[in-house]
Amino acid sequence: MNPEGSTLTPGHLEALRWKPRELPGHIGHIGPLWTRKEPEGWAYGLLCDARHLNPAGVMHGGVAATLLDHAISAVAWEACGRQPCVTVQLDTHFLAPVAKGQFAEVRVKVNSRSRSLMFLYAEMMVNGTLSATAQAVMKVMAPAGV
User: Are the beta carbons of 124 and 63 closer than 8 angstroms?
Assistant: First the structure.
């Protein structure tokens, strides 16, 4: 977390053990995505900059939803033995704005799973404040060639 009102830089994030990830596909357009291994699992983050803002001057809901969906997908992928997973449903609730220079952190929990579906919950925090939540249903895909 960064102190209220201060702007984080990539150097600050690296000092806090966050690692930048340049990824292909849609998430690569908003990144870098930041990741950090924690005792409870992986955390995912995004440093909000000017390209992430909506006309109101805060993080666009689509950017927040993309970050939440990516984090949920990554946790689902790991939880099901690295099998591909696709989003069936993503319910997102926006609770507080994310301003330019703030770092949005996402943590995900697997609530339950069946053979082919996973149910997950995610929270996005900014400076210790809950900014958004998401619940997702993920479809576990069959391994290639099966």
Answer: no
> Domain holding 41: CATH number?
3.10.129.10
Report d(CA 33, CA 116) in Å as an integer: 28
Tally the domains of the chain. 1
Tokens representing 116 are 């082919």
Q: In what order do the strands lie in the sheet with 129-140?
A: 19-21, 33-38, 41-47, 103-113, 117-126, 129-140, 85-94
- Report pTM: 0.90
Name 112's Cβ contacts closer than 8 Å, sequence gap at least 6: 118, 119
pLDDT digits over 5-52, tens only?
457 888 999 999 999 998 888 888 888 999 999 999 999 999 999 999
- Residue-range definition of the domain harbouring residue 32: 10-140
Surface-to-core class of residue 25, CB atoms within 10 Å of its CB (0-12 exposed, 13-18 middle, 19+ buried): exposed
- Whether 1 is in a domain gets the answer no
**DSSP-assigned letter for residue 84:** -
